[in-house]
Predict the 3D structure of the following.
Amino acid sequence: MDFLSDQEPQPAGSTLGAADAATANQFVTFTCGQRLFGIEIMSVREIRKWSQTTPMPSQPYGACGVLDIRGSIVEIYDLAAMLGAHSAEEEASKVILVVSLGDRDVGVIADTVSDIIFAKPEDLRPAPNGKGRGESSVAKLVKSGDQLIAVLDLDVLFPSYTSH
């Protein structure tokens, strides 16, 4: 499955065309550490099967190595470790979601990709405030059926990739 696109995400508050409006509230959902999460679909560049990474010295917390993806070196992060979860899945059954952060791509390891969902505006909920714990890694919640899916804030999880 490949999500490569020539279109850039629109800034907040901009007018969306019909095609952009269709992706505005779409999320790729996945499991990580037996929890369900989502990422905005426009951030996901591709979903890859598990590949062994090359460990590098002095990597940031959660980084487990790098991969050569079509000639670009992409840092791969263990999302379960970053979120304080424990993955029970075998390495070979995991997937890597390659996400775009500004002008760079980063890979995040997930247990499984679940679905692509479209959320109606009434299905979106604000993330809990999290007073006293710093910025939350959850941007918002999406109600899907009887469950709430935490949509991750990639800018908070990877601040060194998004701040220049």
